[in-house]
Amino acid sequence: MAGTWIYPDWPAPVRVRALSTTRQGGVSRGKWDGLNLAEHVGDNPIDVAENRTRLREMLPAEPRWLNQVHGVTVAYADVLREVVAADAAIARHRHTVCAVMTADCLPVLFCDEDASVVGVAHAGWRGLHAGVLEDTLACMEVDPAKVMVWLGPGIGGNDYEVGSEVKDAFVADMPQAIAAFRMSVREGKWLADLGMLARLRLRQQGVLRIYGGDFSTFADPERFYSYRRDGVTGRMATLIWLD
Fold first, then answer.
1. Does residue 149 contact residue 213 with C-beta atoms inside 8 Å?
2. pLDDT on residue 152
3. What domain count does the chain have?
4. Residue ranges of the chain whose pLDDT lies below 70
5. What's the pLDDT tens digit per position in 87-141?
6. Is residue 167 one of the residues assigned to a domain?
7. Beta-strand pair 236-242/88-91
8. Computed over its alpha carbons, how large is the radius of gyration of the chain?
């Protein structure tokens, strides 16, 4: 299914495998048209099951799905036996598939240069500000200088409008975060660059090798779902595992 999968453009170790889905290549119809992987957005459960089956064919095992709540909890995917409330996951065992679903929030992949641990985080502005990336790094228990990160498809900086309270919260934590905001045409509103905010926070932790951030979900309706653009819509997945 050409165009269905995005493979991260990062120099990860050979044992690390990862992919991000698009909305293409699925059987969902209507507002969820395409490869919707979420069971909680009103789509036909039979269609979602077929979409997940198509994804499963690309993977070594069933993904460890999460109940994402825009928080900072990091799940240890190797021992998961049921869906838990978390917004990130790490794995050290071969073929444990970590996964997050998104439709504007930023999916962030992690691995270390020795291929001893991988992780993924779901970073909307709330989770990003609360420290989901920092907590994922901490749970990996490796030197941040040895970590590589890839930023997957998320809403672009030209389209993500937020209130002043969001800008103020980030800038209070990190004054240089002001560079990730510019005034919107609407009074009191700002356009936020999630990718830049993620890079700033990761670099503050000592992560220097950061890749990706080239896809805008809002601006590309043919390839991506976008909650901000469409309201009722599907979800894509970003997944990583050790081979």
1. no
2. 98
3. 1
4. 1-2
5. 999 999 999 999 999 999 999 999 999 999 999 999 999 999 999 999 999 999 9
6. no
7. unpaired
8. 17
Q: In this structure, is residue 100 part of a structural domain?
A: yes
What single string gives the DSSP state of each residue in 34-57?
A: B----SSSS--HHHHHHHHHHHHT
Closest to 108 (Cα-Cα) out of 20, 226, 233, 24: 20
Q: How many CA atoms lie within 13 A of 49 on its CB side?
A: 3
pLDDT for the residue numbered 1: 63
Range of the structural domain that residue 43 is part of: 11-155+207-242
In the sheet with 189-192, reading across from the earlier edge strand, the strands are 161-163, 189-192, 181-183
To the nearest 10°, report the CA torsion of 16, 22, 26, 30: 150
Output the six-digit token pair for 86.
């978390």
Q: In a 3-state reduction of DSSP, which class is residue 157?
A: coil
| Domain-embedded: residue 84 | yes
Run of H or E residues at 140: helix 132-140
Six-digit token string for 61 = 């095992």
* H/E stretch holding 85: strand 84-85
- CATH code, 54: 3.60.140.10
